[in-house]
Specification:
By secondary structure, the protein is of the alpha/beta class. Helix 3 links the parallel strand 3 and strand 4. Helix 1 crosses helix 2 and helix 4 crosses helix 5. The chain is built from eight helices and ten strands.
Length: about 270
């Protein structure tokens, strides 16, 4: 009830009035049945703008820190996320991350729409970063279509660290549903998981027009915080041809990583 009241009566109309979001491809979102909405991640507000524009309920896998905050702001944020039916995503890997993915599978099993950010965290600089394979696991295990979603300009509305938003127009592009049925039965093959993830990231890059960086956003954030050294070489590129690192998407009969050696956990 809270979700629909906020979406249709309070928050939704206010956001549409102030930010005048433009939308393309909304008819690519299925009118019924399960689907994954895989989006780039530029701002905290992505999890608000996208559900507002989709007629159906969207449940997001959101980082677990949003549900464990302290102080008044932290408690209000946690309450908001719970009341809007968002799901905590543990990004530490292993059994904890697998449990979080199970919550996403439950949403899809019930015929719902599941929102997920393949990058695993907000982009630190508005570029598109390497996707983690959790989105591929979900798509292959549940055998549902993946709709790529490009958020446009939300990083300018609410940059990382900024509390009050800037009032300006934003956009959302919903791409055509992606079918990975050719990989069904291979969901435990890590090279297949990586191939599916890279194909999704390529579509996000194509729709959003973002520069692609073949590196995990979380690693870049650690480096910016001084927790990791600078890399020896650049990592920019295209997820289809891989730029300097030679990463490729399906199309030549082989996975982009050979034996599937990947640094990411989910």
């Amino acid at each position: 009830m809270f979700y629909w009241v906020m979406k249709r009566i309070f928050l939704g109309p206010l956001l549409k009035l102030l930010f005048r979001p433009w939308v393309k491809g909304l008819d690519n979102v299925p009118h019924d049945g399960p689907a994954i909405l895989a989006s780039n991640h530029l701002s905290f507000s992505d999890s608000i703008f996208m559900p507002v524009m989709v007629p159906r309920r969207v449940s997001f896998l959101a980082k677990s820190e949003y549900f464990t905050g302290t102080g008044l702001k932290g408690r209000l944020t946690a309450l908001f996320f719970r009341l809007t039916n968002q799901l905590p995503m543990d990004r530490s890997g292993g059994a904890a991350s697998e449990l979080s993915l199970q919550a996403g599978r439950d949403v899809l099993a019930d015929g719902g729409l599941l929102g997920i950010y393949p990058e695993g965290t907000r982009s630190p600089d508005a570029r598109l970063y390497r996707g983690k394979v959790g989105v591929a696991k979900l798509a292959l295990q549940t055998r549902v279509p993946v709709v790529p979603v490009a958020m446009i300009g939300t990083e300018k509305v609410q940059p990382i660290g900024k509390r009050l938003p800037n009032i300006r127009r934003i956009g959302i592009i919903f791409g055509q549903p992606m079918d990975f049925s050719r990989y069904y039965g291979q969901e435990e093959d890590h090279s297949v998981q990586r191939a599916v993830t890279d194909e999704i990231m390529y579509e996000l890059m194509r729709l959003s027009g973002q520069e692609y960086v073949d590196e995990y956003a979380a690693v870049v954030k650690q480096r910016l915080a001084g927790q990791l050294p600078e890399p020896a070489g650049g990592s920019e590129g295209n997820p289809r041809d891989g730029g300097e690192k030679g990463r490729r998407l399906p199309g030549n009969g082989s996975g982009p990583d050979g034996d599937g050696a990947v640094a990411g956990k989910v």
